Amino acid sequence: MRTRIRIALILALATLPYVDSMSQSGYDNSQISKSTDQIVRKIAKINVVMSSVVGEGGERPRQYDNFVKLREKATTQELTQLTGHPNPAVRCYAFWALTGNPAVDLLPVLLAHINDNNPVKTLFGCIMGEKKAGDFFIDIATGYGDSNSEFLTARQRAVLDSTLIYSSNELNAKSEAIARAEPTELLYPKLRDLVITQNDQSALVTLARYQKEQDVELILQNQARSKPEEKEYFATYQAIQYFPHPDLFPLLENNLQQTLDKTHFSNEWRQLYKAIAVYRSRRAYDLLEVPFTQVKHGDIRKYHLDFVFEALRAVKEPFYDELLWKLWVEENRITPDVLAYLSEKNPERVFELSKKSLADANGLYSANISSNYDDLKASEKVVSGMLELVMKRERDFSVEIIRQNLQDANVHLFTIFARKAAEIQDPSLIDPLFKRLETEWNAHIYLAAAQALLSYSDTKVNQRILEAKRKNPSLGKDWGEEAFDKLLKNNNLK
After folding, report:
1. Residue 188: CB atoms within 10 Å
2. Same domain, 351 and 471
3. Directed axis angle between helix 395-408 and helix 347-358, to 10°?
4. Cα–Cα distance between 49 and 70 in angstroms, integer?
5. What pLDDT does residue 454 have?
6. Domain end (from 158, 182, 206)
7. Do 481 and 346 lie in a common domain?
8. Which 8-state DSSP code applies to residue 31?
9. Within this chain, do residues 147 and 34 fall inside the same structural domain, yes or no?
10. Are 34 and 66 in the same domain?
11. Which residue in 168, 81, 98 sits closest to 140, CA to CA?
12. Distance set, CA 243 to CA 15, 207, 213, 486 (Å)
C-alpha cells in the first residue's frame, strides 16, 4: 500500500528533532556497562552485520550470537546510546535490537541517522554486501532481516518518507520513498526540482505519473548521469510507462534500432519494451515484432524476445494477442499466467499447442527459464498444467508423452512425469522408469523413479527395484544411498 504523504505530516517535520548522528559527539561510552561493552567490542572487531544463517552450509555465525547477547544483556538506554557508537556494525545491531522492544519509538532514531552514510558490511545468507548505515536502519525498521516485520505505523512511515524526500540526504531509501509517494500537488514542485537540479531518476518516474504536458521535455531530454552507461535511459523508459505521450514514442523507436546490432544485452531493454507496449498502437505492435527478424546476433536475440514476452505479460492487451501466440508457436515462450490467459481466448488452440510443447518438454523448460526470474518454478508449473489439460481429453496420447519424458526429462521436470505415472499406473511406463532408476546418477531423478515404481505394489517390480542397486552404482553413493535405502525400508523391502 502506498504511503499517503499529507500536508499535516509534512508540516509536522518542522517540529521533529534532527540530529546528525555522524558527528558521534553525542556518544557517551560511560553510559555503557562493562558487560555490554565486552559484547560491543566483539561486534566491532568482526565489523560485519550478519543474519542468523549464513554461508552455503546455512551456519549460525558467532557474530549473530554476539548480537543475541547484546539484545539480551543491554538495556534500552544502552541500546539507544549505542546507535551513536563510532562503529557502524555496532550502531546497526543496536538499532536492530531496539526493534524488539515495542515501547521504543524508533522514528526519532531513524531521523537522527538520515545522514548516516558510513558503509557497513553485511552478510545475510550467502549474500555479502555493503550499504549505508542509515539505509540499514530503515531496512530493519521496515521489514528487512530475520523478523521480516514492519516496526513503523503508517503515520511514522509517512513522516519518514517525507523527511527522506524533503531533506538533503544521500540514502538509497530516498529513491524508494519517492517511488512510493502518492502524486499530490503539494509534492509536485519538489519532484520537479529534484529532476531539474539533481537529475534524480526516481523523481522523474514519479513526476511522470502526473502526466503534465510541461514535463514531456524533461522526460525526453533525461539521461542518467550515473554509470554504467547502459542504465542511462532506465528511468526514462519507466517514466514513459506512466506517461505514454505521443512525443516520446520516436525516442523509443530510435533507441530500439540502436540495440539491434549489440553484442551484449542490457537489462535496460526490459523497460524499453515495456514502455513500447503501453502505447497499445499499431506502431507499437510493429516495434514489438522487430526482434523476431532484425536482431543481428542470434545469442542476443533471445534476450530481446524474453523482454518482449515480459512486456506483453504485463499489459495483457487483446490487441497484442497474436504476438503472444507467435512467441509460443515460434519461440516456445509460455508461462502459467499466459497459458491461462490464452486458454480463455482459444482453448482448442491451447490444447493443440500443449500437445506439441509436451513432445519437447525439456526445450520448453529451457526456453522459459529466463522469463521466470520472478517464479523459479513457473516452467515446471506450465508443463504440469499442460499435462493435466491433455490428460483430460486424450489419455492414450498422454501416456505416450509421459513414457517419452520418463526417458528424456531433465531433473527439473522428471518428477512431474514420475508422479503422473504413479497416479495412472499404466504398465507401459514401468520399463521407462526402470531405465532411469538403473542408469541415472542424479539422486533426485532415481528416487522419483523408485517412488513411482513402488506405487505399482507389484512383487516383480519390487524385486527389480532391489536389484537396481547392483546395476547402478550411483544408488550407493552420497546422500542418495541413504534416501534410497530409507525408501525401501519404508516400503518393507529391506
Report:
1. 16
2. no
3. 40
4. 13
5. 96
6. 182
7. no
8. G
9. yes
10. yes
11. 98
12. 37, 9, 10, 60
Q: What one-letter code names the amino acid at 212?
A: K
How many domains does the chain fold into?
3
- The confidence score (pLDDT) of residue 74 equals 96
Q: Confirm whether 315 is domain-assigned.
A: no
Report the C-alpha gap between 72 and 80 in whole angstroms: 14
Q: Is the dihedral angle over the CA atoms 255, 256, 261, 262 positive or is it negative?
A: positive
Q: Which of 412, 409, 404, 456 is nearest to 430 (CA)?
A: 456
Residue 185 and residue 211 in contact, taking contact as beta carbons nearer than 8 Å: no
Longest dimension (CA), the chain: 82
Tens digits of residue pLDDT in 416-470: 999 999 999 999 999 999 999 999 999 999 999 999 999 999 999 999 999 998 9
Q: What pLDDT is stored for residue 58 in this prediction?
A: 83
- Domain range holding 79? 7-182
User: What does the block give as the cell for 475?
Assistant: 544408488
What are the grid coordinates assigned to 252, written together? Answer: 523509443
- Would you list the DSSP string of 294-322? H-S-HHHHHHHHHHHHHHHHHH--GGGHH
Burial degree of 8 (CB within 10 A; 0-12, 13-18, 19+): exposed
Q: Are residues 67 and 161 in the same domain?
A: yes
Indicate the residue among 133, 151, 182 that finishes a domain.
Answer: 182
Residues 24 and 160 in one domain: yes
For residue range 214-232, list pLDDT tens digits in order.
999 999 999 776 555 556 8
The full length of the chain comes to 494
**Which residues fall within 8 angstroms of residue 326, CB to CB, at 6 or more apart?**
292
Q: Is 383 in the same domain as 433?
A: no
Q: Looking at the domain assignment, is residue 171 inside a domain?
A: yes
Cell of 333: 515462450
Determine, yes or no, domain membership for 200.
Answer: no
Q: How large is the angle between the packed helices 414-424 and 430-439, nearest 10 degrees? A: 140
Q: Specify which residues 125 forms β-bridges with.
A: 54
* Residue 65: C-alpha distances to residues 69, 81, 85, 177, 427 (Å): 6, 21, 19, 33, 56
126 by DSSP, 3-state: which?
coil
In a domain, 70, yes or no: yes
Of the candidates 160, 108, 61, 30, the one whose C-alpha atom is nearest the C-alpha of residue 98 is 108
Cα–Cα distance between 38 and 52 in angstroms, integer? 21
Asked if residues 412 and 365 have their Cβ atoms less than 8 Å apart, the reply is yes
Model-level pTM? Answer: 0.82
Looking at the structure, tell me whether residues 345 and 488 fall in a common domain. Answer: no
DSSP state of 142: B
Please give the helix or strand (H or E) that residue 339 lies within, else none.
helix 336-345
Q: Which residues of the chain have pLDDT under 70?
A: 1-25, 145-148, 225-231, 370-376
pLDDT for position 314: 92
